[in-house]
């Protein structure tokens, strides 16, 4: 097919020199693919190097504690990726003797490995002709063929996967998969694609029908949920503070944070002090409370916005779960907490 040859030719001329393109080691490919899920290359690159330095092999990653993995992941977001990464490393190291599965069907059984990641590893490392379909691929195919099926619908996922299977170069699956992803990343971009200098502009349906800005089509997400967080930043006379680990499923599972009171709305100081939750957390009768940030910090996640206030609570002593303030940076925390710690200059 013409599109196949043109994409590979374009890729061989324009591909970026990314470190995971210099290897077929499944550990390194797997690591990069997990990190780049919902993460830009520029953001993920430093984490890739940090992880390889700390954990040169899957055995090293498996032998790390979850806390060490989460701390190194801190700032990348979507922390379930890090927890799944660690669980899969332990499985590969201990149950598979350090050897990753060699086929798509076996790779997709690994925790945290979906269709896209299994296809990427199978094609790049083991030359299996299984196509990758990520956001870049959806965009290229929907524009080139003028497909209006929503890419995040059940029918859309099946349609684009079938089309990618037709297009893949069975002799060079790794090259083709990387070519179409790279093309979507730097040529057929979401905004302001380079249509004038595009090698596919003579046969692109979206360009011919002036639909480039409309494609791909995506079903709208549900309503964003607003949550109101009040963090109690305890500071004792002997320079101790308090952190708690989030153990329930949901955002930031197993990360640490200051004692939290979640409310239905933004709280005033008076309202905060009247809450039973505050009285349960602050056991010292001699305390002083002040609001650190006059304006809420709004931390935006995919389906929710966290309206956050940090309350400085000065106490004589912390009677349970105290840690030295000097140790606070050793704990894996959400970026919201990490930014506060840096700004407050503990």
List the topology elements.
Elements: H1 2-14, H2 26-35, H3 41-54, H4 58-63, H5 66-73, H6 80-94, H7 104-107, H8 115-126, H9 135-145, H10 154-167, H11 173-186, H12 205-208, E1 225-236, E2 240-242, E3 244-245, E4 256-257, E5 260-263, H13 269-274, H14 276-281, E6 287-291, E7 297-300, E8 304-315, E9 322-324, H15 335-344
Parallel strand pairs: 1-8
Antiparallel strand pairs: 1-5, 2-9, 3-4, 6-8, 7-8
Helix pairs in contact: 1-11, 2-3, 2-8, 8-11, 9-11
Number of strands: 9
Helical amount: 40-55%
User: So, CATH architecture of the largest domain?
Assistant: Orthogonal Bundle
Gyration radius, in Å: 24 Å
Kindly report the CATH topology of the largest domain: Endonuclease III, domain 1
Shape: elongated
State the separation between the terminal residues, measured CA to CA: 61 Å
- Tally of helical segments: 15
Sheet with the most strands, sense and barrel status: 5 strands, mixed
Poorly predicted ranges (pLDDT <50, ≥5 residues)? none
Q: What is the class of the largest domain in the CATH system?
A: Mainly Alpha
CATH superfamily of the largest domain: Hypothetical protein, domain 2
Q: Beta-strand level of the residues, as a percent range?
A: 5-15%
Domains (count): 2
- Class from secondary-structure proportions: alpha+beta
Mean pLDDT: 93
